[in-house]
Amino acid sequence: MVAAGSVTNAVSIMKHLAGSPPLGVNAIARAVDLNPSSCFNIVKALAAEEFLEFDPATKLYRIGPLPARLFGAGRDLPLWKAWLHEQLDHIASHYSLSCGLWDVRWKRVVLTDVLDSPLSTRIHLSVGQRLPAYIGAMGRCVAAGRGLGREEIDAIMSELRWQAPPTAADYWQDMQAVHDRGWALDDGRYLRGVATVAAAIADRDGHPVHCLTSIFFSGQFDDGKIDEIGAALAAVARDAEQRLRDMP
């Protein structure tokens, strides 16, 4: 009975958060009539399994990515991913670079699809690869999408490992550029000799849930061509975002 009760309480918490803004433990406990200690244990377990997401800056919980992947979008999601695979394959072939689709989780991003460059000498990516959520070009997109403030960026930068670390001021400027052009560039900062262009895909609430990347060797393209690649990737991201939001 205890286990069944815990499941019932977990479902009640998720149902409530599905229709509310992010909430703290005490607010959730009041809403579903649980004592705060029991509520904390349940939301912590749900967050560990990605049913909920926890924002350490605000101490608030919201629905995580897993329920949507398990129950949302139904049969349309595989079609969406197949369409996106084709779009990334076109970019990879046209520009002779490697492309990837990443799932954005709270503290990390996970590679779920790879389109290799047609060149014999290329940068290889492996499905399942994980990176910190705020590192590199993707990190700038995720930070911009989550609306992080300057003080938060200062704290994050001290925790990340870069081969050629950007300053917090430069990272902040790159974040602002994401709002203007829809994509970010990391050229040799995270990994020397490697450049990455990234664009984020947001959910209906504006939270980044996926990232698209194009990865190539530093110096392979001039600035004009990099701008062209960034614009192409951002256009696919916006189209993918709209298609995702249009799903029932």
UniProtKB/TrEMBL annotation:
GO biological process: negative regulation of DNA-templated transcription
One Pfam family of this chain: HTH_IclR
GO molecular function: DNA binding; DNA-binding transcription factor activity
Domain of life: Bacteria
Record domain IclR-ED: where: 59-246
UniProt keyword terms in alphabetical order: DNA-binding, Transcription, Transcription regulation
Domain HTH iclR-type: 4-65
UniProt-recorded name of the protein: IclR family transcriptional regulator
Organism: Sphingopyxis macrogoltabida (Sphingomonas macrogoltabidus)
